[in-house]
Write a structure and sequence with these properties.
Layout (H helix, E strand, L loop, with lengths): L2 E6 L9 H18 L3 E4 L19 H11 L4 E4 L2 E2 L5 H14 L4 E6 L4 H7 L6 H20 L2 E5 L4 E6 L12 E4 L6 H8 L2 E4 L3 H18 L7 E10 L3 H12 L6 H7 E4 L1 H12 L5 E5 L6 H11 L10
Parallel strand pairs: 1-2, 1-12, 2-3, 3-5, 4-5, 5-8, 8-9, 9-10, 10-11, 10-12
Antiparallel strand pairs: 6-7
Helix pairs in contact: 1-2, 1-11, 2-3, 3-5, 6-7, 10-11
Protein backbone atom coordinates (compact mmCIF):
# COMPACT_ATOMS: atom_id res chain seq x y z
CA UNK A 1 0.00 0.00 0.00
CA UNK A 2 1.49 3.32 -1.08
CA UNK A 3 -0.39 5.37 1.50
CA UNK A 4 -2.01 4.71 4.87
CA UNK A 5 -3.47 7.89 6.28
CA UNK A 6 -5.20 8.99 9.47
CA UNK A 7 -7.68 11.82 9.12
CA UNK A 8 -8.45 13.85 12.26
CA UNK A 9 -11.82 15.54 11.57
CA UNK A 10 -12.97 16.12 15.13
CA UNK A 11 -11.54 18.39 17.81
CA UNK A 12 -14.03 17.64 20.57
CA UNK A 13 -12.42 15.38 23.15
CA UNK A 14 -13.98 14.62 26.54
CA UNK A 15 -12.03 16.24 29.34
CA UNK A 16 -9.65 18.13 27.05
CA UNK A 17 -9.92 21.94 27.48
CA UNK A 18 -8.80 24.41 24.82
CA UNK A 19 -5.42 25.02 26.44
CA UNK A 20 -4.58 21.30 26.06
CA UNK A 21 -6.28 20.74 22.72
CA UNK A 22 -3.23 21.11 20.49
CA UNK A 23 -1.10 18.84 22.67
CA UNK A 24 -3.81 16.20 22.48
CA UNK A 25 -3.89 16.41 18.69
CA UNK A 26 -0.10 16.11 18.65
CA UNK A 27 -0.46 12.92 20.67
CA UNK A 28 -2.89 11.51 18.10
CA UNK A 29 -0.56 12.37 15.22
CA UNK A 30 2.59 11.04 16.85
CA UNK A 31 0.79 7.86 17.90
CA UNK A 32 -0.26 7.36 14.28
CA UNK A 33 3.29 8.03 13.10
CA UNK A 34 4.76 5.57 15.58
CA UNK A 35 2.17 2.89 14.75
CA UNK A 36 2.70 2.68 10.99
CA UNK A 37 0.55 5.42 9.42
CA UNK A 38 2.52 7.39 6.84
CA UNK A 39 0.27 10.45 6.60
CA UNK A 40 -2.02 12.61 8.72
CA UNK A 41 -4.82 14.76 7.31
CA UNK A 42 -7.17 17.37 8.74
CA UNK A 43 -10.29 18.89 7.20
CA UNK A 44 -10.31 22.38 5.73
CA UNK A 45 -13.58 23.50 7.29
CA UNK A 46 -14.68 26.46 9.36
CA UNK A 47 -17.62 24.75 11.06
CA UNK A 48 -17.91 21.14 12.12
CA UNK A 49 -19.75 19.14 9.47
CA UNK A 50 -22.85 17.02 9.80
CA UNK A 51 -22.35 13.35 10.54
CA UNK A 52 -19.31 14.09 12.72
CA UNK A 53 -20.81 16.55 15.19
CA UNK A 54 -22.88 19.70 15.67
CA UNK A 55 -21.82 22.70 13.57
CA UNK A 56 -21.03 24.52 16.83
CA UNK A 57 -18.31 22.03 17.81
CA UNK A 58 -14.71 23.32 17.78
CA UNK A 59 -13.01 23.51 14.38
CA UNK A 60 -9.38 24.54 14.02
CA UNK A 61 -7.99 26.22 10.90
CA UNK A 62 -6.32 23.48 8.91
CA UNK A 63 -3.02 24.94 7.73
CA UNK A 64 -2.16 26.59 11.03
CA UNK A 65 -2.70 23.23 12.68
CA UNK A 66 -0.64 21.38 10.07
CA UNK A 67 2.25 23.78 10.59
CA UNK A 68 2.19 22.95 14.29
CA UNK A 69 2.05 19.22 13.58
CA UNK A 70 4.95 19.56 11.13
CA UNK A 71 7.12 20.84 13.96
CA UNK A 72 6.14 17.95 16.25
CA UNK A 73 6.32 15.00 13.85
CA UNK A 74 9.21 13.65 11.81
CA UNK A 75 7.96 11.17 9.19
CA UNK A 76 4.26 11.45 8.33
CA UNK A 77 3.13 13.43 5.33
CA UNK A 78 0.68 16.23 6.12
CA UNK A 79 -2.23 17.72 4.22
CA UNK A 80 -5.84 18.82 4.15
CA UNK A 81 -8.52 16.46 2.94
CA UNK A 82 -9.28 18.72 1.17
CA UNK A 83 -9.05 22.50 0.80
CA UNK A 84 -12.06 24.16 -0.80
CA UNK A 85 -10.99 26.12 -3.87
CA UNK A 86 -13.22 29.02 -2.85
CA UNK A 87 -11.49 29.69 0.47
CA UNK A 88 -8.11 30.93 -0.77
CA UNK A 89 -6.62 32.63 -3.78
CA UNK A 90 -4.83 29.72 -5.55
CA UNK A 91 -1.46 31.48 -5.76
CA UNK A 92 -1.68 32.21 -2.04
CA UNK A 93 -2.64 28.58 -1.42
CA UNK A 94 0.46 27.47 -3.33
CA UNK A 95 2.52 29.72 -1.06
CA UNK A 96 0.87 28.29 2.07
CA UNK A 97 1.48 24.69 1.01
CA UNK A 98 5.05 25.50 -0.02
CA UNK A 99 5.63 26.95 3.45
CA UNK A 100 4.23 23.76 4.98
CA UNK A 101 6.62 21.79 2.78
CA UNK A 102 9.56 23.83 4.07
CA UNK A 103 8.48 23.57 7.72
CA UNK A 104 7.96 19.81 7.41
CA UNK A 105 11.18 19.17 5.43
CA UNK A 106 9.32 17.96 2.36
CA UNK A 107 6.24 16.23 3.78
CA UNK A 108 3.38 18.43 2.50
CA UNK A 109 0.47 17.23 0.37
CA UNK A 110 -1.67 19.80 -1.45
CA UNK A 111 -5.26 18.60 -1.13
CA UNK A 112 -7.88 20.57 -3.04
CA UNK A 113 -11.46 20.22 -4.25
CA UNK A 114 -14.42 22.22 -5.53
CA UNK A 115 -15.85 22.98 -2.04
CA UNK A 116 -19.39 22.14 -0.96
CA UNK A 117 -20.34 23.59 2.42
CA UNK A 118 -22.67 26.49 1.62
CA UNK A 119 -23.39 27.12 5.30
CA UNK A 120 -19.84 28.13 6.19
CA UNK A 121 -19.43 30.09 2.95
CA UNK A 122 -22.47 32.14 3.90
CA UNK A 123 -21.31 32.55 7.48
CA UNK A 124 -17.82 33.75 6.56
CA UNK A 125 -18.88 35.84 3.59
CA UNK A 126 -17.33 33.73 0.84
CA UNK A 127 -19.09 33.57 -2.52
CA UNK A 128 -20.61 30.16 -3.19
CA UNK A 129 -21.09 29.95 -6.96
CA UNK A 130 -22.88 27.06 -8.71
CA UNK A 131 -21.04 23.78 -8.93
CA UNK A 132 -20.10 24.29 -12.59
CA UNK A 133 -18.30 27.51 -11.76
CA UNK A 134 -16.61 25.99 -8.73
CA UNK A 135 -15.23 23.21 -10.93
CA UNK A 136 -14.03 25.75 -13.48
CA UNK A 137 -12.34 27.66 -10.69
CA UNK A 138 -10.76 24.41 -9.55
CA UNK A 139 -9.28 23.80 -12.99
CA UNK A 140 -7.74 27.27 -13.11
CA UNK A 141 -6.47 26.88 -9.56
CA UNK A 142 -4.78 23.58 -10.42
CA UNK A 143 -2.94 25.21 -13.31
CA UNK A 144 -1.76 28.07 -11.11
CA UNK A 145 -0.66 25.83 -8.24
CA UNK A 146 1.30 23.52 -10.54
CA UNK A 147 3.00 26.54 -12.10
CA UNK A 148 3.83 28.08 -8.72
CA UNK A 149 5.38 24.79 -7.58
CA UNK A 150 7.45 24.32 -10.75
CA UNK A 151 8.31 27.71 -12.24
CA UNK A 152 10.59 30.50 -11.05
CA UNK A 153 8.03 33.20 -11.89
CA UNK A 154 4.51 32.21 -12.90
CA UNK A 155 1.90 34.00 -15.00
CA UNK A 156 -1.65 32.93 -15.78
CA UNK A 157 -4.73 34.69 -17.08
CA UNK A 158 -8.03 32.91 -16.80
CA UNK A 159 -11.67 33.74 -16.38
CA UNK A 160 -11.51 33.73 -12.58
CA UNK A 161 -7.85 34.05 -11.56
CA UNK A 162 -4.88 36.04 -12.76
CA UNK A 163 -1.24 36.10 -11.66
CA UNK A 164 1.69 37.95 -13.18
CA UNK A 165 5.28 36.83 -12.67
CA UNK A 166 4.31 35.49 -9.25
CA UNK A 167 7.29 34.43 -7.13
CA UNK A 168 7.30 31.46 -4.80
CA UNK A 169 10.55 31.71 -2.90
CA UNK A 170 11.85 29.63 -1.22
CA UNK A 171 11.04 26.80 -3.57
CA UNK A 172 9.28 23.69 -2.23
CA UNK A 173 11.46 20.97 -0.78
CA UNK A 174 9.87 18.28 -2.94
CA UNK A 175 10.88 18.23 -6.62
CA UNK A 176 8.05 19.79 -8.67
CA UNK A 177 6.37 20.70 -5.41
CA UNK A 178 4.11 18.83 -3.01
CA UNK A 179 1.89 16.24 -4.68
CA UNK A 180 -1.53 17.60 -5.61
CA UNK A 181 -4.46 15.52 -4.36
CA UNK A 182 -7.91 16.19 -5.80
CA UNK A 183 -10.80 15.17 -3.60
CA UNK A 184 -14.11 14.14 -5.15
CA UNK A 185 -15.57 11.51 -7.43
CA UNK A 186 -17.56 13.48 -10.01
CA UNK A 187 -17.30 11.41 -13.15
CA UNK A 188 -17.65 14.04 -15.87
CA UNK A 189 -15.35 16.78 -14.61
CA UNK A 190 -13.62 15.99 -11.28
CA UNK A 191 -12.06 12.71 -12.36
CA UNK A 192 -11.14 14.30 -15.69
CA UNK A 193 -9.26 16.98 -13.74
CA UNK A 194 -7.51 14.21 -11.81
CA UNK A 195 -6.32 12.68 -15.06
CA UNK A 196 -5.12 16.05 -16.35
CA UNK A 197 -3.51 17.62 -13.29
CA UNK A 198 -3.32 15.48 -10.14
CA UNK A 199 -0.65 13.37 -8.53
CA UNK A 200 -3.16 11.85 -6.11
CA UNK A 201 -6.92 11.55 -5.77
CA UNK A 202 -9.40 10.61 -3.07
CA UNK A 203 -13.00 9.51 -3.15
CA UNK A 204 -15.59 7.64 -1.08
CA UNK A 205 -17.66 4.49 -1.43
CA UNK A 206 -17.97 0.76 -1.03
CA UNK A 207 -16.07 -1.79 -3.12
CA UNK A 208 -18.44 -1.59 -6.10
CA UNK A 209 -18.42 2.21 -6.10
CA UNK A 210 -14.64 2.41 -5.82
CA UNK A 211 -14.18 -0.07 -8.65
CA UNK A 212 -16.49 1.97 -10.86
CA UNK A 213 -14.73 5.26 -10.05
CA UNK A 214 -11.38 3.72 -10.91
CA UNK A 215 -12.72 2.51 -14.24
CA UNK A 216 -14.02 6.00 -15.04
CA UNK A 217 -10.67 7.51 -14.06
CA UNK A 218 -8.86 5.05 -16.29
CA UNK A 219 -10.98 6.12 -19.26
CA UNK A 220 -10.17 9.77 -18.59
CA UNK A 221 -6.48 8.90 -18.35
CA UNK A 222 -6.62 7.07 -21.67
CA UNK A 223 -8.29 10.10 -23.27
CA UNK A 224 -5.45 12.43 -22.24
CA UNK A 225 -2.61 9.92 -22.67
CA UNK A 226 -1.91 9.55 -18.93
CA UNK A 227 -0.78 6.36 -17.21
CA UNK A 228 -3.30 5.84 -14.37
CA UNK A 229 -0.58 4.12 -12.37
CA UNK A 230 1.15 7.50 -12.10
CA UNK A 231 -1.73 8.68 -9.87
CA UNK A 232 -1.93 7.55 -6.24
CA UNK A 233 -5.58 6.58 -5.84
CA UNK A 234 -7.01 6.64 -2.32
CA UNK A 235 -10.32 6.22 -0.55
CA UNK A 236 -11.52 7.93 2.63
CA UNK A 237 -13.64 5.97 5.09
CA UNK A 238 -14.21 5.42 8.78
CA UNK A 239 -12.65 2.67 10.85
CA UNK A 240 -13.70 1.14 14.13
CA UNK A 241 -11.16 -1.47 15.18
CA UNK A 242 -10.91 -3.25 18.50
CA UNK A 243 -9.23 -6.42 19.70
CA UNK A 244 -12.37 -8.47 18.94
CA UNK A 245 -15.30 -8.19 16.54
CA UNK A 246 -17.71 -8.00 19.47
CA UNK A 247 -15.91 -5.02 21.03
CA UNK A 248 -15.90 -3.25 17.67
CA UNK A 249 -19.64 -3.82 17.21
CA UNK A 250 -20.31 -2.35 20.64
CA UNK A 251 -18.25 0.71 19.72
CA UNK A 252 -20.27 1.01 16.52
CA UNK A 253 -23.52 0.95 18.47
CA UNK A 254 -22.23 3.78 20.65
CA UNK A 255 -21.37 5.72 17.51
CA UNK A 256 -24.87 5.26 16.12
CA UNK A 257 -26.35 6.93 19.20
CA UNK A 258 -24.64 10.23 18.32
CA UNK A 259 -27.26 12.71 17.05
CA UNK A 260 -27.04 13.37 13.32
CA UNK A 261 -24.95 10.34 12.36
CA UNK A 262 -25.54 9.50 8.71
CA UNK A 263 -26.51 5.84 8.72
CA UNK A 264 -26.06 5.56 4.94
CA UNK A 265 -22.46 6.75 5.35
CA UNK A 266 -22.02 4.16 8.10
CA UNK A 267 -23.29 1.47 5.76
CA UNK A 268 -21.00 2.35 2.85
CA UNK A 269 -18.08 4.05 4.54
CA UNK A 270 -17.36 2.21 7.79
CA UNK A 271 -15.09 -0.76 8.34
CA UNK A 272 -15.79 -2.40 11.69
CA UNK A 273 -14.21 -5.37 13.42
CA UNK A 274 -11.26 -7.02 15.07
CA UNK A 275 -7.92 -7.18 13.25
CA UNK A 276 -8.71 -10.21 11.09
CA UNK A 277 -12.08 -8.91 9.89
CA UNK A 278 -10.63 -5.45 9.27
CA UNK A 279 -7.77 -6.87 7.22
CA UNK A 280 -10.21 -8.85 5.09
CA UNK A 281 -12.39 -5.79 4.40
CA UNK A 282 -9.42 -3.56 3.67
CA UNK A 283 -7.91 -6.13 1.31
CA UNK A 284 -11.13 -6.18 -0.72
CA UNK A 285 -10.80 -2.43 -1.17
CA UNK A 286 -7.16 -2.69 -2.17
CA UNK A 287 -8.03 -5.42 -4.65
CA UNK A 288 -10.05 -2.88 -6.64
CA UNK A 289 -6.81 -1.18 -7.65
CA UNK A 290 -6.58 1.46 -4.92
CA UNK A 291 -3.09 2.52 -3.92
CA UNK A 292 -3.93 3.75 -0.45
CA UNK A 293 -6.54 4.20 2.24
CA UNK A 294 -7.29 7.05 4.61
CA UNK A 295 -9.34 6.50 7.74
CA UNK A 296 -10.93 8.66 10.33
CA UNK A 297 -11.67 6.85 13.56
CA UNK A 298 -14.71 7.60 15.71
CA UNK A 299 -13.57 7.72 19.33
CA UNK A 300 -10.18 8.75 17.89
CA UNK A 301 -9.06 9.73 21.37
CA UNK A 302 -8.58 5.98 21.91
CA UNK A 303 -4.82 5.76 21.35
CA UNK A 304 -4.85 1.97 21.62
CA UNK A 305 -7.22 1.81 18.64
CA UNK A 306 -4.87 3.98 16.55
CA UNK A 307 -1.94 1.73 17.48
CA UNK A 308 -3.94 -1.40 16.64
CA UNK A 309 -5.02 0.07 13.29
CA UNK A 310 -1.44 0.88 12.35
CA UNK A 311 -0.15 -2.56 13.31
CA UNK A 312 -3.01 -4.26 11.46
CA UNK A 313 -2.88 -2.31 8.21
CA UNK A 314 0.61 -0.98 7.62
CA UNK A 315 1.86 -4.18 6.00
CA UNK A 316 -1.01 -4.76 3.58
CA UNK A 317 -0.26 -4.54 -0.12
CA UNK A 318 -2.28 -3.69 -3.20
CA UNK A 319 -3.06 -7.07 -4.75
CA UNK A 320 -4.32 -6.11 -8.20
CA UNK A 321 -4.14 -3.09 -10.46
CA UNK A 322 -6.78 -1.44 -12.59
CA UNK A 323 -6.67 -2.84 -16.13
Amino acid sequence: MKLLGLQIPNFTFPGVPNDRLFEHIVTLATTAERSGFDSVFVMDHLYQIGGIGPRTDPMLEGYTLLGGLAARTTRVRLGTLVTGVTYRNPAFLAKVVTTLDIVSSGRAICGIGAAWNEDEHRGYGYDFPPVGERLSRLEEALQIIRAMFREEASSFSGRYYHIHQALNVPRPEQPNGPPIMIGGGGEQRTLKLVAQYADMCNFFGDVATVRHKLEVLQRHCEAVGRDPNSIVKTRLGSLIIRSTDAEAERALERRLTVPGVNREWVRTGYIVGGPERVRDQVQKLLDTGLDGLIFNMPHVEDLEAIELAGRTLAGLEQATAVR
